[in-house]
Write a sequence for this structure.
């Protein structure tokens, strides 16, 4: 069986792989190297040892037996070719990504009956319960903004947040008339425009950002769910140091989001899941965060007379 083991940042071959990646203008993230198996590493070593053995082979050069000399040289050439092929095959195999298994997920059901979702098993979870931390029912704001739940991996700066605020507040904050039907996204506005309002609302509580690109905004067939993606550039104080450590001079954060009106109580329930671009694209974290957003369900609330 193939046992998957990670290259550490101190592995003697990690620098070699990084150099090759940079030469091909591909981002070198030492965490991404963990997607390569130890089996491939063994193949590389076998090829290297075979080449070294062939290179040290000394064919007999006895002038008394020309036939033996020619045969030895032919044997040497054959061994050298086989060793070179083994080295090339082993190294190429090492650079092929292995389809990693999905991250283990766990289900979180809100004890107050507002929502449910899945998050990676290793993520911490925090459901806000203090009155001052929860968003005000009228303004949708509290000490933590509109957030009622967070989960994440602090070591990798991956964050999941659930927010809750009145639909009318989203419009009124931007000087838009909030009268009329607000039960579907079509009645509120176009997908790109509404998604942009949601992003602007979150940016008021976020660190300084250089640029952003919003895309893939779309509404479900029933008009109740709005999904979109966001790519945001993060300010870097020392680009040259970042380039030396991670092989990139810019940092981007990828966010996948869903906003829903399914609670049917006049509130927007939204989930945002984000990670640094290199982590989001490592084959594990991105799919897990997308699963979190897809699994998010806002529970219908009882109508207050």
């Amino acid at each position: 069986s193939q046992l998957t083991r990670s290259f550490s940042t101190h592995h003697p071959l990690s620098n070699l792989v990084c150099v090759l990646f940079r030469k091909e203008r591909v981002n070198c993230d030492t965490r991404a190297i963990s997607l390569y198996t130890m089996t491939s590493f063994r193949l590389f070593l076998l090829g290297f040892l075979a080449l070294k053995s062939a290179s040290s082979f000394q064919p007999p050069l006895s002038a008394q037996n020309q036939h033996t000399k020619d045969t030895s040289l032919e044997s040497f050439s054959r061994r050298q070719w086989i060793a070179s092929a083994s080295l090339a095959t082993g190294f190429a195999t090492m650079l092929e990504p292995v389809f990693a298994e999905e991250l283990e997920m766990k289900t979180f059901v809100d004890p107050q009956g507002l929502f449910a979702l899945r998050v990676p098993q290793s993520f911490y979870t925090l459901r806000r319960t203090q009155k001052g931390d929860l968003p005000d029912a009228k303004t949708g704001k509290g000490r933590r903004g509109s957030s009622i739940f967070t989960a994440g991996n602090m070591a990798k700066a991956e964050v999941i947040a659930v927010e809750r605020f009145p639909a009318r507040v989203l419009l009124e904050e931007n000087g838009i008339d909030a009268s009329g039907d607000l039960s579907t996204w079509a009645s509120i506005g176009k997908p790109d425009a509404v998604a942009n309002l949601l992003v602007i609302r979150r940016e008021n509580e976020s660190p300084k950002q250089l640029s952003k690109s919003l895309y893939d905004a779309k509404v479900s067939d029933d008009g109740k769910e709005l999904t979109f993606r966001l790519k945001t550039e993060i300010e870097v104080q020392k680009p040259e140091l970042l380039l030396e450590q991670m092989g990139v001079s810019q940092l981007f954060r990828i966010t996948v989001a869903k906003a829903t009106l399914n609670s049917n109580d006049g509130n927007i329930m939204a989930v945002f899941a984000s990670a640094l671009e290199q982590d989001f694209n490592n084959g594990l974290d991105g799919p897990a965060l997308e699963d979190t957003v897809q699994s998010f369900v806002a529970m219908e609330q009882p109508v207050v007379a």
